[in-house]
From TrEMBL:
Gene3D superfamilies for this protein: 3.30.70.270, HIV Type 1 Reverse Transcriptase, subunit A, domain 1
Recorded coiled-coil stretches: none
Protein name: ribonuclease H
Documented EC number(s): 3.1.26.4
Domain of life according to the entry: Eukaryota
Organism of derivation: Grus japonensis
Amino acid sequence: MHYLLKREWIHSDHIDVVSICIVTWLLRCWDNGTSSLELEVQKSNGQWRLTVDYRGLNEVTLLLSAAMPDMLELPYELESKAAEQYATIGTVNTFFSIPLAAECRPQFAFTWRGVQYTCNQLPQGWKHSPTICHGLIQTALEQGEAPEHLQYIDDIIIWGNTAEEVFEKGKKIIKILLKASFAIKRSKVKGPARRSSLKEYNGKMGILRSQWM
């Protein structure tokens, strides 16, 4: 689980990112006698993140029968479409928009500055979070009768032979996602753009990204 931190938050007695998360209902105080390890991690861009180490929990979590697409196959499937125009749509803060059932909260407990907390929303770092997120978005798109697309977790690619066709498909998908209470930022919508602009497949993150001319 990752929460973006400003450096002064970590060392301040007055501003605490956990307090902010409590106010926004991402976290709640908790006391169940168990706890995962929390770490303050600095990223390469200088930002800080509060990270909860859920590796121990992941080791004892049973497998899900649900499955996601093979991310290594997605570029080949996309290539087979042989379309002229593409666009990408990504939802934002998707895990944190998915509420946890009350009976599931104890397993996600962690301690920060001597106080125990747990999550109200689906945390990052738990091994089933991507699968659950993917499944909920997939269900919303299916129920909304979305046009043909490729999806991996919270990233969606659409295509067509003209920019107008892709634009109309994108509008419909965005409308479906917003109706299902998923958030979308303008910066997470890329395209339409020509096929030659679709260059980068980022396997490490497990998502398809686009760089547009």
